[in-house]
Amino acid sequence: MRRPTEVLVRVVVTGGAGFVGSHLCEALVARGDTVVCLDDLSTGRAANVAALTGHRRFQLVEHDVTTPFDVDGRVDAVAHLASPASPVDYHARPLQTLAVGSRGTEHCLELARLKGARFVLASTSEVYGDPLQHPQTEDYWGNVNPVGPRSVYDEAKRFAEALSAAYRRTHGVDVGIIRIFNTYGPRMRPTDGRVVSSFVTQALQGEPMTIHGDGGQTRSFCFVDDLVRGIVAMLDGSEPGPVNLGNPAERTVTELAALVLALTGSTAPVVHLPLPVDDPTRRRPDITAARTRLGWEPMIDIDEGLRRTIAWFRVHDDIRPVVLDAVEPPRVVLDAVSARPAGALGDAGH
Length: 350
Known about the structure:
The chain is α/β, with parallel strands linked by helices.
């Protein structure tokens, strides 16, 4: 999607009320784009986009992308972020995770095909599994257990990548694939099972900080604002990818715990629990492609990013866990003629 000089751009963001998606919606609206945000609110929260509610260039539509849908009027780009993404979520919703990666991705690709729109798939570093290559480059095929407890998320994203590439080759859809590494920042759910949100919540509440394994496993943590800049760069270009988006600064989980304790001033104890099955031992992106093809690299170091994250958590202690179960979420009632949610996806802002 190349930005016109005299007209606004209209972007559909699936999963737009989630952690990353809500920040992307804000960034797009802030620069003058019109955004249609689709989210079934199973793991996202309407509160995440509350600041955009009522804005003439923003529309929130509650919809599950595994159900076919259409969007009236012009669409210049589709950013497909919808998916359960945290361990808590995809373990609780394994079938929904696979459905979003397959049917949901196909429906989003069909929208892009019909509208002649740029399509950007938010894939994940999880496609590399427990990598044997370090750091991970985009041409590394990964070391993945296709039937393990983490496999529903890994394989859903691998299939989504394959489907996106097939749409590019078969239908000429302008597809771009990004592989997102560990990301943190404001609006993470305290109970989402991710290490940063868990550590910050436990430290602020004085609860034991739980390290799985010996803490020697590494992760590379990217602040959400940096990630969003990378997604926007992918939307604005024609790069097919896949392109890694992450911060190559690598830390052990033990080092992260110590930093969170120092920045919060907490005296919470640290306890060790068994390492989950198939948990990666090392994770670090090679971002050469992002630097050379997108002109992107992270700018916010982990100290500053954690300060901003902790500050947000301190004033949002009213956050409650999202209730998850293994039951498929309710479907939107479809208009029998248009095969889309009746009246839901109008041409907002145009």
